[in-house]
Amino acid sequence: MARVKNWQLGREMSYWYPEARPKKQFAAIFDTNKCIACQTCTLACKTTWTSGRGQEYMLWNNVETKPWGSYPLAWDVRELDLLGPQHWTGDTYTGKTIFEAAPEGKKNIGWTPNDMDYAYPNRGEDEVNVTINVKRYHLKLPHDMWFFYLPRVCNHCTYPACLQACTRQSIYKRPEDGIVLVDQERCRGYRICFEACPYKKIFYNHTTRVSEKCVFCFPAVEQGYQPRCMRNCIGKIRSFGFVSTPANAREDNPIDFLVHVRKVAKPLYPQFGLEPNVYYIPPIHVSSNDFLTMLFGAGARHAIDTYRAAMEGDDPELLGALLLAVSTDRIIHRYQVTGDTVIGWAEDGEEVVRIPLKVPTIERAPFDPDLNVYRHNIT
Ligand code: SF4
Ligand code: SF4
User: Fold this and answer.
1) Alpha carbon of 116 to those of 72, 127, 196, 201: distances in Å?
2) Is residue 313 part of a domain?
3) Range(s) of the domain holding residue 201
């Protein structure tokens, strides 16, 4: 085992291979406050990549309702049970990762789902976390009945458990952009990766007898365009770009700004130790700090407070970075807020988006004498 730096844990940890960061690391940010669970992302991915034989059960992108939803069944609860107690001391994780908790002779803890675990991808959808007593009150104040939608894709982790586990070295992380891929020619379908990935985002194809996973739409990414699930997001919750390590973070990179500067975007289950590269803006209405810390690590509540300030108009730079989500199909490498406008540029310096921080409201007279019609205002 090597010792590697995991900045999400605030410390070094054990991993099978030495630290080897790609030149660029592509990353995504999902704002859970805006997701409406329309599943457009799920279908955009399904129709693009997994409509073939042996792929029927696969959802490389899925959206589950937390706290009760899960795909495959109870994926996170089972992993957390195996991991045991998890502790944060300030911003440092002092518990064990899935690599450090491995029993003698194994590289990590893990479990293998069976076919039925994938049979109910919408289990728990729209279920709240407490029973609503309809006989007495629908709501109580302050109301603490909550749920939220959690979209999930492969995290293209910095320390992928799937890659570490593979005994044929069939899984690799591209040095140019950090995308994690399975070499379909080398893979023999041993399914050790299937057991190892704590997020359960690698899948076994029973027809081709090899493993498959999200490819971050790399043919589009190579042309400077965002993946399909990002471009099709109805709720405009998804930002896509590249993330730096904290020491190299750039204020004019919208992903760095959200992750490192304002720290509103947090990794999912950072305590697993994989340094995942998909980040989440935590849901502002969830009342349980313990639950938020379990999902998004130590800074979840701080992220919510900072996010609220932007919504109240106190932080135009943050508002501008958030408004870039799904504003263009192109990958934004640089951004700037000028006055009441946010502008985004592609890697080659071309301006690809320019949007106002506030959409102007136009109120029309109820009666239009030129056309002799009455109109509704629908702003
Ligand atoms: S989320 Fe799972 S499948 Fe994706 S890179 Fe990480 S360990 Fe591998
Ligand atoms: S398309 Fe966007 S809003 Fe709709 S479910 Fe997916 S992430 Fe949520």
Assistant:
1) 9, 21, 19, 16
2) no
3) 2-281
Q: How many domains does the chain have?
A: 1
Cα–Cα dist 354/255, whole Å: 17
Ligand 1 closest atom vs CA 156: 5
Quick: pLDDT tens for 70-126: 999 999 999 999 999 999 999 999 999 999 999 999 999 999 999 999 999 998 899
Residues with CB under 6 A from ligand 1: 154-157, 160-162, 180, 197, 199, 201-202, 213, 274
3-class state of residue 63 by DSSP: strand
Is residue 107 within 8 A of residue 99, CB to CB? The reply is yes
What is the 156 CA–ligand 1 centroid distance (Å)? 6
**Residue pLDDT, tens place only, 20-33:** 999 999 999 999 99
User: Which pair of structure tokens corresponds to residue 13?
Assistant: 């940890």
- State the pTM of this model: 0.93
Query: Do residues 329 and 289 make contact, with C-beta atoms less than 8 angstroms apart?
Result: no
CATH number, position 33: 3.30.70.20
Q: Which of 214, 233, 280 to mutate to test the pocket of ligand 2 (most atoms within 8 A of CB)?
A: 233
Distance of CA 251 to the CA centre of its chain: 21
Ligand 2 pocket check: which of 36, 46, 230 to mutate, most ligand atoms within 8 Å of Cβ?
Answer: 36
CB atoms within 10 A of CB 219: 9
